[in-house]
Design a protein that fits this description.
- There is one protein chain.
- By secondary structure, the chain is of the alpha/beta class.
- It has 10 helices and 14 strands.
- Strands 3-2-1-12-13-14 form a 6-stranded parallel β-sheet.
- Strand 1, helix 1 and strand 2 form a beta-alpha-beta unit.
- Helix 1 packs parallel to helix 10.
- Pfam families: DUF3326.
- This is DUF3326 domain-containing protein.
Length: 345
């Protein structure tokens, strides 16, 4: 019997009540991974700044790559480990750069990760932050060509198999937005711009990638939400990115050019997808809704956007909480119709 495979999606930068902060969806991922054989998810779920958790049967897949995988265009090939290349923004100040390089040294020595020499972009990336009318965050890169050139050096000259990007993010962020986020009631102002950076690299280079922002140190905040507190533990958010990328599956971009491997994963093997109930408009979910994959929508995980499944013609199993979603997955994996477990059905 083939492995039961689920995909967990929490869209980036939309203020998800669970998964919209600093790794606060990791408990959800850990639990779901206990009831399925393979769990596919993305950095927004598994990155907790200096905190992370190794989930052996979870696959760390960047958002653009996740969309291509869900559409059936790309496959995933699990790996034992990746050689990670570090890409640093020229706009990072020397002291802040040193903090990140020391974090890399720590990951090599303490976690045994394989990390190449680093490359600094030939121009500052000049990241700018934006907020859409829906409240979702996004951003722009002033010098995307510089980002791509640095990544190509890491791949072609240094042999990197995955790329961790550290870009300098602006200090003049919207103070109200930052305070709301720190209090656990707003949208992550950085997440949307981070997605723009990683999407650009994965789209152009077809290699696992994740981003960690470089920020100026700030004084301690007295009313900090536990959901945001992971970002206050150190000088860099890099550790969780390095851990995730170390075992991120490689992309199979041209199926006919690869020798098939029994461990390869393709979209037609996805049994279930779990998403917030009002965030069903992602490319990945729209693709999966056209397949045999069962969609489970979680009402409690509210977001700033209002895109439910029904108006899009997506059939879903609606649940109130992730705890209820776990029960549905257990039933589905056992081949039991979840409706038979509800009194009166």
């Amino acid at each position: 019997m083939r492995p039961y495979t689920a995909i967990l999606i929490v869209p980036t930068g939309v203020g998800a009540a669970i998964g919209g902060y600093a790794g606060d969806a990791i408990p959800v991922a850990r639990t779901l991974a206990q009831v399925c054989d393979r769990l596919i998810t993305h950095p927004n779920v598994l990155n907790g700044a200096s905190l992370y958790w190794n989930i052996p049967n979870a696959f760390y897949v960047e958002g653009f790559g996740l969309d291509k995988f869900a559409s059936g265009c790309w496959g995933l090939r699990p790996v034992r480990s990746n050689k990670i290349g570090l890409l640093l923004d020229q706009g990072i100040e020397p002291e802040l750069q040193l903090r990140h390089l020391q974090a890399v040294d720590a990951a090599r020595a303490t976690l045994g990760l394989t990390i190449t020499d680093y490359v600094v972009t030939d121009a500052p990336l000049n990241v700018e932050l934006r907020t859409s009318t829906s409240g979702a965050s996004w951003g722009t890169i002033g010098n995307p060509d510089s980002l791509l050139r640095a990544a190509e050096i890491l791949i072609n000259k240094i042999g990197a198999e995955a790329i961790a990007v550290v870009a300098r993010f602006p200090d003049d962020m919207d103070e109200d937005a930052v305070q709301n986020y720190r209090q656990g009631k707003g949208v992550d102002p950085l997440a949307g711009a981070e997605a723009v950076i990683s999407h650009l690299l994965v789209r152009n280079l077809q290699i696992p990638c994740a981003h960690s922002p470089a920020l100026a140190n700030t004084p301690p905040y007295p009313d900090l939400s536990p959901r945001s507190a992971a970002e206050e533990l150190g000088y860099t958010f890099l550790p969780s990115v390095l851990v995730g990328l170390s075992r991120a599956p490689q992309f199979i971009v041209e199926k006919q050019l690869f020798t098939s491997h029994p461990a390869d994963i393709w979209a037609d093997q996805i049994d279930a997808a779990i998403v917030p109930a009002n965030a069903c408009g992602s490319s990945a979910l729209l693709s999966l809704s056209q397949s045999r994959c069962l969609i489970i929508t979680v009402k409690d995980n509210q977001t700033q956007i209002q895109v439910p499944a029904q108006p899009l013609g997506i059939k879903s199993i609606q649940v109130n909480s992730y705890l209820e979603a776990v029960g549905v997955l257990v039933a589905l994996k056992a081949g039991i119709n979840p409706d038979t477990l509800i009194l009166g059905q």
